[in-house]
Model the fold of this input.
Amino acid sequence: MLEGLNKISDIEWEVRKGYVDDMAVPGRIFLSEGLGENLEDGAVKQLANVATLPGIVKYSLGMPDIHWGYGFPIGGVGAFDVENGIISPGGVGFDINCGVRLITTPLKKDEFSGIKRLINTLFSTVPTGVGNVAPKKFSDSELEDIMREGASWAVKEGYGMPDDVKSCEESGMMKEASTEHVSTKARQRGRPQCGTLGSGNHFLEVQYAAEIMDDEAAKAFGIEKDQICFMIHCGSRGLGHQVCTDHLGTIENATKKYGIKIPDRQLACAPVKSPEGEAYFGAMAASANYAWANRQMITHMVREVIERDFGVDYNEMKLVYDVTHNVAKIETHVVDGKKMELCVHRKGATRAFGPGSPEIPKDLSAIGQPVIIPGSMGTSSYLLKGTQTAMEKTFGSTCHGAGRLASRSSAKKSHSGADIRQDLLDRGIFVRATSNKVIAEEAPEVYKPSSEVVDIVHRAGLSMKVARLEPIGVIKG
DNA sequence: ATGTGC
Done:
């Protein structure tokens, strides 16, 4: 509910200092009155709690897809001064570098047929679902390289082409990775899973570009109307999950050790510049690199299938961009006219750097970075561009997706997976999933409409629409 | 999200 929040504009709301005790800064949420009806009190409280943590700068921020999460809300951004601020695993989440990438093909919708066959082939090619393993179990030394080098490791091993790397945020590799802080247990979980899709909201979709809203940006990003594309949404699997679990323990101890007062145990944190904070950051970066290698390997599998079955040249399937939804990064931002080094936590939020940012590909410098916002199963996904407004208002951030409305358990009670699969088929969307249970949990109705969420970030100027993508085939874990 | 709930 929006009650108790101060209205700044039709799409921006303030969570005043004092909403919970000890807030150092206010909160800001980008949200319409309509979507505000589903705003959870718990999520607002979590956003306010983040504002109590040491070193927070400017605002604790909520995107229109905000919902309740572990400690920090999902759809939240918190930036902390590197000198006196904190880093928190709860500000990143369990699925470190959960992210999404978009790849185009030269195929056009009108000339394309055989979606069922393609999805069935991909479903048997890309390992999918909880506990599934990749065709290859990597050695300890290979895993070490994966965690250090990320997407570039995969390309070097033949799972892609050199241009792929520069089309990833961070070039698909956080150089701060320190693998010595990744436990044996995390490595054991990670070794058989690189090149697997995972479960839940993770997916592999075949889509087409249904609408182009910004011709200039679409041209720069390399996407045309009616083009067949594929989108991959997944993360760091069991490795990132284990890294989060392991470091929550050490960070909880550090919270006590450094005398940091937190309003919720799930906000455990340590100074950015502390051994415990640096250890978590290094292990998180290693997990992020693993996730980039993972998405790169899946990209390769899909390209090989399309090359073989549709006669498309592998090199004609270009990576538009790869963004991360769950990460903490050290970035320089201008705050009240002066440059500051910040530890920016984006949890269920996407970087949306604007024109001229040195971090984005040079050939896109005049446009802004590509921003990819996936919809829920069977609904529109969007390609947008980053903006200067985002740099000024949200530390260069925007939303990450539709945002869940109902819990997995309630979704299972109210929806039949088989019925949803048939409904989608009637609408021309062919779904393969590891179980009907997953389809019920991921029913489009239990998510906010992606179009409404994207409308708000567009109206707020946090990222501007470039293209709308519609699914024709979906693989769900 | 996750070898799905301590």
The CA atoms of residues 402 and 449 of chain A lie 6 Å apart. The longest strand of chain A covers residues 463-476.
